[in-house]
Design goal:
Elements: H1 12-23, H2 30-43, H3 46-65, H4 71-89
Helix pairs in contact: 3-4
């Protein structure tokens, strides 16, 4: 039996970024840009993510100290920590 293709739901912002990559000629289609983004994420290993965590935490702290909205980076930090935990448990 053939595998059912995966379906991804993108935010408007994510779709816009992928469309811009197609418009600039970096990719021939949104699907190709999405595949490249997924491949890039999958190739990140635990060490890369572990190195990224304190950098992102510092960025968030600096944004907070300037009174900037950190809702988006806070969400990214939560997701990064979840991914690190999954990698450590694997």
């Amino acid at each position: 039996m053939a595998k059912k293709p995966k379906t991804y739901t993108l935010t408007a912002e994510q779709a816009e970024v992928l469309e811009e990559l197609v418009e600039t000629g970096e990719f021939d289609s949104v699907e190709e840009a999405l595949d490249a983004a997924i491949d890039s994420l999958l190739s990140m290993d635990e060490d890369d993510m572990a190195e990224m965590l304190p950098v992102m935490e510092q960025m968030a702290a600096e944004m907070r100290s300037r009174g900037e909205d950190t809702k988006e980076i806070d969400k990214q930090l939560v997701e990064l920590k979840k991914q690190l935990a999954m990698l450590k448990d694997a």
